[in-house]
Amino acid sequence: xxxxxxxxxxxxxxxxxxxxxxxxxxxxxxxxxxxxxxxxxxxxxxxxxxxxxxxxxxxxxxxxxxxxxxxxxxxxxxxxxxxxxxxxxxxxxxxxxxxxxxxxxxxxxxxxxxxxxxxxxxxxxxxxxxxxxxxxxxxxxxxxxxxxxxxxxxxxxxxxxxxxxxxxxxxxxxxxxxxxxxxxxxxxxxxxxxxxxxxxxxxxxxxxxxxxxxxxxxxxxxxxxxxxxxxxxxxxxxxxxxxxxxxxxxxxxxxxxxxxxxxxxxxxxxxxxxxxxxxxxxxxxxxxxxxxxxxxxxxxxxxxxxxxxxxxxxxxxxxxx
Length: 321
What we know:
six-stranded parallel sheet; 22% strand; L-2-Hydroxyisocaproate Dehydrogenase, Chain A, domain 2; 2 domains; alpha/beta; Rossmann fold; 41% helix
């Protein structure tokens, strides 16, 4: 975002495209946050966006003054951030990657509308498969790569920290670890450099009396990878966790926090990976993606990251964009 464009952006305005479970939960979470004074909801079903806006607005008096309404694509022009959650729902036993073909066609129509407006803000892609759709959006929109970011493995990382904290009976906010790569089946838990308040994770497990670290960490990683499928099998969709992730990313952008989050963005040579979007820790601020953080990976983690990139690269090569 160039400095000369700052005056044409309302940093207290967000737009959410797609009012399904994820979009509506994200709107509610952002209303609670008080980050924005204006949130426009866009959905192909106008009644749906109007109903969600009205319902969420009824809670505003318990938080901070805010305008929440059903809008249209003209509302994106001065928004600081546009959050795209539209897309087909993931069904039981369907991988995120299997969603690709359906949602690429949906994104083509959305991005064509965005291109008609002089949008100067940040595009946050949340729809799945988020890595492929982030790359697709960058190509279709023509926007600078730093202004198109995906929610990536922010939620997966939160799940990992939760599981580790829960097992060790410590505050998950004191757990420092990342999930990287694909937001999906080939994601990688970076445990070689994980720590709890500066103490190496394996050492902390021993401090707590757990000496089978390898078996426990493998079980935790498995639970994290399967958590979305478990939730979908039980309640048909996941939305509260990702809504919290959307809120966290928006905080980093709107407050220019320079926060380090594992968002999905385009890689250009890192770990030998070129021209594909996936998640690695990055500095996030008012300009969206600002810099990659080179966390230390062991040989197995590096190889698994390369495999994850190849899976995404091979998949996206099959689609006409």
